[in-house]
Design a protein that fits this description.
mainly alpha; three-stranded antiparallel beta sheet
Length: 179
């Protein structure tokens, strides 16, 4: 994918336009294949505090829709959020930019393709599977259409976070943001 197509998908004309929740959601949720180099180039040019805030907001939004009984999924998504926010806030050189872009791409693949959630409609007993992105969207729809679904996240592909050392200040800042 070239830069122009990427910018069109995330609805920006230049990296300084990347300021809204919808920009990040489009980046993370698109089914389009993206070049790592284009993501890294975009990440290098985005305001890092804005990116960190958007990542924090995005993950808070999706974790609000996790079924109440799935602490494992909540913990996994919270750890991914902490890692991405920490990297975005601490970009010091090209290696951190590259690592952040790599983690964004890895999350995209896990969230949109690799991770399958099994769902059972408790009214019709129909069973099907969706990617994590679509299953979490289904939890929102469930609240609106008065249907009841059972979600099975147990086959969730393991998401091992690569080691990224956060400063003590970052950990405190993240904790304060959650209060």
């Amino acid at each position: 994918m070239n830069r122009e197509k990427l910018y069109k998908i995330i609805d920006i004309e230049e990296p300084s336009d990347f300021q809204y929740f919808e920009n990040l959601a489009a980046l993370l949720e698109t089914d389009e294949e993206m070049d790592f180099e284009e993501i890294a180039d975009l990440v290098a040019k985005i305001d890092k505090d804005t990116l960190a805030g958007l990542i924090d907001d995005y993950f808070n939004d999706i974790t609000n829709n996790i079924p109440e009984n799935d602490a494992t999924l909540f913990t996994t998504l919270d750890n991914i959020k902490r890692s991405l926010v920490g990297m975005a806030r601490n970009v010091t050189d090209d290696s951190v930019i590259s690592k952040l872009a790599e983690e964004i791409e890895r999350f995209r693949n896990w969230y949109n393709v690799d991770c399958r959630v099994f769902i059972k409609d408790l009214d019709t007993l129909e069973e099907y599977d969706l990617c994590m992105r679509d299953a979490l969207a289904e939890t929102r729809i469930e609240k609106l259409d008065n249907k009841t679904y059972q979600y099975d996240f147990s086959d969730m592909i393991e998401y091992d976070l690569d080691e990224y050392v956060m400063s003590f200040g970052d950990i405190i800042a993240l904790a304060e943001d959650e209060i």
